Amino acid sequence: MAEIIQEEKAGGKKKAKKHAPHIDMTPMVDLMCLLITFFMLTTAFAKAKVMEINLPEKIKDDKPQEAPRIQASRTLNIILGPNDKIYWYPGVVKPEEYNNLPPVQEVDFSVTGIRQLLLERNRSLAKKIDDFKQQVLEGKIKISQDSVVKAIAQLKKIDDTGPIVLIKAYKKANYGNFVDILDEMNICGIARYPFVPIAWYEEKMVEIATGTSPAAVVPAKN
Amino acid sequence: MPKIKLPTKSPHIDMTPMVDLFSVVLTFLMLTTTMRQQEPAPVDTPFSISEKPTPDYNTITLLLSKDDKVFLNFDNGPDTILKFRPKILAEMGKRYNIEFTPEELRQFEKYPSSMGVPILKMKEFLAAKDVKEKLAFQVGIPIDSTDNQLALWILFARQVNPAITACIKGDSKTGFPIVQKVLDIMQEKNVNKFNLITSLEAVKINLEEIQK
User: Fold this and answer.
1) Angle value at C-alpha A142, between A139 and A146, nearest 5 degrees
2) Is A49 close to B54, i.e. CB distance below 8 A?
3) Is the complex ipTM more than 0.90?
4) Interchain proximity B196–A176, CB inside 8 Å
5) Is B192 within a domain?
6) How many domains does chain B fold into?
7) How many CA atoms lie within 13 A of B6 on its CB side?
């Protein structure tokens, strides 16, 4: 970039220049390079996005509350396990059956893993949402972006076929898993996905599945 | 054969277009820049498809680092008329019988980044001159049940500014127990709505492919 200025040796005669004097711009360019580099490195280009999550309010009074009734057949329990694995089982498990816990299935966070599982179970709702979005894209329905969001929320609200996914986190899960699973719920258009604390027998189920629990041996002795 | 004469003088490159371009880029960067904040701990946020931008003001951001430390930042964006940062600190000081001088309150207001300093060390933290010295005090905010300063910070922040919303910025490798604990503390203070800060990721789903 820098220009080497060679002195002309030819004599001492100086000709009056006719063209405009040439300004050496090299230092200016150097400085600009520095400034651009500085700004590029310090600028936060992409603004961080947020994902909203509403947790159920904690009930503080001692009155025993009736748990909301949900169909066991629609329930899907998802437990975030260690090493970026997800363990899931359908329906409910009663704590009394702790000696005979049903096995949990293992999936991962890939397209063929958890997403396939959720989409298969949520097919009718996912299709409805997809069709709706397609119609909006094709211009058959003309509504604003806000209304689209509202309409999809309404579709989710009236849906009674999709699964109710109970999300639980084993103690060795990490925050990334938590965000990933919530994201997966949004991608698959799951209508209801409460985040609930993990029960002790579910922890045990995960431990049996990963083979880290001594309890896995105990039922064999009985 | 005639020899090709090489010019002895180096060719003169006209830098004007380059300078023009540089000026444009520089002006653009200077006008659009929002300085990246120096965080006390490196945090790689997880990815999501959410497209909602982070709120600019009235936020309390909880930074959960990989090594289970909690840092706090109160942000009111460019609107500093409310000056709620010093107010929160003053309230905190009252609770712990620490009197903060106006100079210290101003230091706290100016501090641009998240802080994770136990309140008893706050005076020394604010007195520290340079970044490295300050970093030594950033040990995370105590969240034990015996000395739950995080709960107090949240309580006072909500007293001073009721419109404040909670944002959680966690590293994807942060263990879940600490996240659960922080969520519990927030819920105890009746904060039930959270914004999880994520980076944008493009995901396309293909229903037909999965149905096969």
Assistant:
1) 120
2) yes
3) no
4) no
5) yes
6) 1
7) 2
Provide the domain limits for residue B87.
47-200
CB-CB neighbors (< 8 A) of A43 in chain B: 29, 32-36
Contact criterion met (CB < 8 Å) for A3 and B13: yes
Distance from CA of A69 to the nearest CA of B (A): 22
Is B30 part of a structural domain of the chain?
no
How do residues B53-72 score in pLDDT, each as one tens digit? 888 778 888 888 888 888 88
Distance CA B153, CA B189 (A): 11
- Return d(Cα A180, Cα A168) in angstroms, integer: 13
Q: Enter the tokens of residue B14.
A: 């006209």
pTM of the model: 0.72
The backbone region for A76, taken as left when phi is positive above 0, alpha when psi lies in -120 to 50, beta otherwise, is beta
Query: Is B187 within the bounds of a domain?
Result: yes
Residue contact A57–B192, C-beta within 8 A: yes
Q: Do B167 and A50 touch (CB under 8 A)?
A: yes
Query: Does the distance separating the beta carbons of A53 and B10 come in below 8 Å?
Result: no
A177 CB neighbours in chain B (<8 A) are 176
Give how far B204 is from chain A: nearest CA, Å.
9
Give domain A72-122+163-221's CATH architecture: 2-Layer Sandwich (3.30)
Domains in chain A: boundaries = 72-122+163-221, 124-161
* Token pair belonging to A103: 């096995």
DSSP state of A92: -
Chain B residues within an 8 Å CB radius of A129: none
- 3-state helix vs strand vs coil in chain A, percent to 5: 45, 15, 40
> What does the alpha-carbon distance between residue A169 and residue A181 come to, in Å, rounded to a whole number?
10
Tell me the pLDDT tens digit for each residue of A104-141.
888 888 778 888 888 888 877 878 888 888 888 887 77
**Beta-strand pair B165-170/A164-169:** unpaired
Residue B152 within a domain: yes
Chain B environment of A26 (Cβ under 8 Å): 15
Total length of chain B: 212
